[in-house]
Amino acid sequence: MTVTVDAAPRRALIRWLVFATVVLAMLMHAIDQTSVATALSAMQNDLGASLAWTGWTITIYSVGQILVLPLAGPMGDRFGARRVFLLAVAAFTVASVLCGLSSGTAQLIVFRFLQGLAGGALLPVATAIVSAEFGRDRDRAIALFSTAFPIGAILGPLAGGLILTFASWREIFFINVPVGVLLICLGRVLIRETPRTAPARVDVGGIAWLTTLLLSGMVAITRIGSFGEGWTGPASVVGAAAVALVAGRFLLRHLHRHPDPIVSPRLLTGQRLGLMNVMNVLFGAAVIGFSALLPHYAQIRYQMTPIASGGLLTVRAVFMIALSALAVGLLRRLGHRPLLLAGMAAITVSLLITGLPPVHTGPELWLSLGAAVMGFGMGLAAPSSANAGMHLVPEQAAAVSGLRVLFRQAGAIIAVSVVTAVTSAATDPAAANTAAFLVLAAVMGGAVVLAMRIPNQRGRW
C-alpha cells in the first residue's frame, strides 16, 4: 500500500519534469528566433556585410523550419520521438556554437540554416513526447505547452538586448550551449521512448523543389541592390529569378502528380482555401516582417539602444498574450470573422504608427504605442485566423494548420528579404525602412479586404 501511494506522486513528478524539459527546449528555440532580430545592426557592423545579406540570418532560419516540418514527424515515427528530440537539441547546440564562431556572413547564414532545421524538428517530436506522457490529459498539456512561444516572444528581445548591452552578438548563440547540454542530460534520464509506427511517406522531391524555389527567390531579391555593379548585377537577378520560376512550375506539377505530396493541391485552392493562403502570405509579411525589422529600424532611425529596441517586441508580446485570452473567450459568441477583421485593422494602424514620425512624444513611447497596437491586433487575429482556416476543412485541421505556418513564413521571408535589400541599396537607409512600414500597412490593408470574404462561423464546429 505504501508503495502504491509513493509511486503515484513519483509518476506525476516525472511527468511534469518531462514536460518542463520539453518546454525548456521550445523556449530555447523561441528565444533564439526573436533575440537575433535585435542584433542585425551589430552583426552587420562586425562582419562588414550589407543589411541585405545580414537579413538572411533571419530568413534562412525560417526556411530551415519550413523544410524540416514535413520530415520531423515521420522521423519521430520511424526512429522514436525521444531519439529525434535529443538529436535535434544536440544539433541546435552545435549549430549555435558554429554561429557564434562565424568569421563571415556566408558562414553565419549556413549555420543559421542548420539551426533552423534543428529548431523546426523540435516542435513535432516535442508534441509527440508530451502527448505520450500525459495520455488522456494530453489536450490540456499541449495547450499549456504552446505557451512556450509567447513566453519566448517576451524573453527573446529582452535577452538579446541585454546581451548586446554587455557583450557581443556572438553571446546570443553561445548562451544556448549550457542550456543544450542540460537538456540532453535531462532528456536521456527522464524521457521515455515513444512507440514506433510505420512512418508516412515523405515527399522528398517536393521538399527539394520547395527548397530551390525559396532559396533562388531570396537570392533574386537580395541581388536587387547589385544593379550598379555592371552586367553581373542584373544577370544574377535574372538568373536567380528564372531558377525560381522554373522551380515553382515544377513544384506545382509535382504536387498534382505525387500520390502523397508535401502540400495537397486541394488545400492550395479549394473551398476558399486559396483566399486564406494568400491572406496568410500577406499576414506573415506584415506581422512577422514587423517583428524581424522593428529593432533594427528603431536603432537606425531613432538611435535607440539594443535593449530599448528589443523591449518594443516585448511590449508587443505582452499585449498579444492578453488579447489572445479575450479572443478565445469571444470566438464562439462572435465567430472568427469579426475578431479577424478587428485584429487585422489594428495591425494596419500599428504599421502606420510605426512608419509615421512621433506626435507630441518621444520615439520610445511612440514606437511602444505602435508595438502595443500590433500586439492587440495579433492577439485578436491569431486565434480567429487559425479557426477560420480549419473551419473550411475540419477533417484536415492538422494539414491546414501546417499550411498556415508555411504561407506565413513564406510571406515573412519575402518581406524581410525585400526590405533589407532595398534598405541596403538606399542612400538613406532610415528613410527606406520608414517607407517599408508604410508599404506593409498597405499590404495589411489588402489582407483585410480579403478577410471580408471569409465566411463566419459561430459556436462549435
Automatic annotation (TrEMBL):
GO molecular function terms attached to this record: transmembrane transporter activity
Membrane topology classification: Multi-pass membrane protein
Predominant location: membrane
CDD domains with a match to the protein in the record: MFS_MMR_MDR_like (cd17321)
One Gene Ontology CC term in the entry: plasma membrane
Subcellular location: Cell membrane
Domain Major facilitator superfamily (MFS) profile: 18-459
InterPro entries, per the entry: MFS, MFS_dom, MFS_trans_sf, Tet-R_TetA/multi-R_MdtG-like
Name the UniProt record assigns to this protein: EmrB/QacA subfamily drug resistance transporter
